[in-house]
């Protein structure tokens, strides 16, 4: 039913406004290839991760029949999402959550709202001047839905489940992604962390807030971009499964190898809409099982972190206290490092090598940081801030394809 699409990027101007207002423990989960039954729909929670290509749309069906739609994909996805809702027997939408005003999240919502006027609409204190956002707001106003500002601490007004917004935690962000309304849904002992496009800034705020972030299933942030799913955030969630909503062969390189490596390192199996189609998680409150619209019905198991096995280029030393990383090229040829990345894994901080950076054969290159950092021959300055955690901080080197070349 759904097709893969490219994300349509529109210029956005961020304004601020206020929309007027009118966790459980984790148990062992299982997978199944059996399609959800009518009994499942009547007594189980269902979370449908719709295959809308390089976009997001999630349908939640509560045992009592109430329904929540989180995002509506791109503009061209609206009618297809409507058809999917009809195929699932949805009669009305209890609530819509518009995580943030990017077209790949709210683009289809105006069409959806016309067919399914919701009782409530939750969205953060963010807007844009795009026609996409204008059409969405017009549809919300015409529907008569109650408008509720999504922010940390706000509860979803839906019975039989606990729905709590954990972000945003601020009113001012440079990037619209960090305005994303992050929703944790809990049903018995099973919970779902639905993160929108929240990036490292928002993740750090959630960690600092002291909220309970642990969840059974993680919807990986920002289509698996390296800007999201920091190691600290992933460790706090400690998910048993993860889902990535992403388009096949998309132009953004999503999901990035950096993010997949983090999930692998944490032992978290991955479902992906580009590989598995629409993914449905069904829970009785104690366990969760997955079904997909493709022939594959099991998540991809954790695999060893891929590394280029040349051995010619490697991080030879990391001086944590001195803030110096030394990279050695042991081959007999120069290597162009333009666009390569050096990552401090504990803080999820990334240095991108500038254009023209080359490490000569049998030579070393140092990347330094901290207040006394000065560039020179064979020395690059990352930042004048301290990067490396003295108590232990692995460093990783990635090439332009996102493949890990070295880790120390």
TrEMBL record:
Residues 301-408 form the LTD domain. The keyword NADP does not apply. GO terms for molecular function: hydrolase activity. Signal peptide: none annotated. The keyword Hydrolase applies. Pfam families: Lactamase_B, LTD. PROSITE patterns: LTD, PROKAR_LIPOPROTEIN. Keywords: Hydrolase. It comes from the Bacteria. CDD domains: ComA-like_MBL-fold. Coiled coil: none annotated. PANTHER family: BETA-LACTAMASE DOMAIN PROTEIN (PTHR30619:SF7), DNA INTERNALIZATION/COMPETENCE PROTEIN COMEC/REC2 (PTHR30619). This is MBL fold metallo-hydrolase. It comes from Desulfosporosinus fructosivorans.
């Amino acid at each position: 039913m759904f097709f893969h699409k490219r994300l349509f990027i529109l210029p956005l101007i961020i304004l601020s406004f206020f929309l007027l207002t009118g966790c459980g423990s984790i148990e062992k989960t299982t997978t199944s290839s059996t399609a959800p039954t009518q009994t499942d729909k009547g007594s189980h929670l269902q979370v449908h991760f719709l295959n809308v290509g390089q976009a997001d749309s999630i349908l939640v069906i509560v045992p009592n029949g109430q329904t929540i739609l989180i995002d509506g994909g791109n503009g061209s996805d609206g009618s297809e999402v409507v058809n999917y809702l009809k195929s699932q027997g949805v009669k009305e939408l209890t609530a819509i959550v518009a995580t943030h005003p990017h077209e790949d999240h709210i683009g289809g919502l105006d069409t959806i709202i016309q067919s399914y006027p919701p009782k409530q609409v939750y969205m953060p204190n963010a807007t844009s001047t795009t026609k996409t956002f204008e059409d969405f707001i017009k549809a919300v106003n015409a529907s008569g839905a109650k408008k509720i500002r999504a922010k940390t601490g706000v509860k979803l007004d839906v019975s039989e489940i606990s729905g709590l917004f954990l972000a945003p935690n601020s009113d001012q962000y440079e990037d619209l992604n960090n305005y994303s309304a992050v929703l944790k849904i809990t049903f018995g002992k099973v919970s779902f962390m639905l993160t929108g496009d929240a990036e490292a800034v928002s993740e750090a705020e959630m960690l600092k807030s002291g909220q309970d972030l642990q969840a059974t299933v993680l919807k990986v942030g920002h289509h698996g971009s390296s800007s999201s799913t920091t190691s600290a955030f992933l460790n706090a969630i400690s998910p048993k499964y993860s889902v990535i909503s992403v388009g096949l062969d998309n132009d953004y390189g999503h999901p990035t190898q950096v993010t997949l490596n983090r999930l692998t390192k944490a032992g978290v199996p991955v479902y992906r809409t580009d590989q598995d189609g629409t993914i449905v998680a069904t829970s009785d409150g104690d366990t969760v099982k997955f079904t997909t619209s493709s022939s594959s019905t099991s998540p991809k198991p954790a695999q060893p972190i891929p590394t280029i096995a040349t051995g010619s280029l490697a991080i030879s030393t990391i001086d944590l206290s001195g803030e110096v990383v030394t990279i050695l090229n042991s081959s007999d040829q120069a290597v162009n490092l333009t666009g390569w990345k050096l990552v401090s894994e504990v803080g999820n901080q990334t240095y991108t090598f500038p254009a023209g950076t080359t490490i000569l054969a049998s030579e070393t290159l140092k990347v330094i940081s901290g207040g006394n950092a000065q560039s020179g021959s064979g020395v690059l300055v990352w930042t004048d801030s301290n990067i490396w955690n003295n108590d232990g901080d692995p460093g990783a080197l990635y090439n332009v394809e996102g493949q890990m070349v070295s880790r120390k």
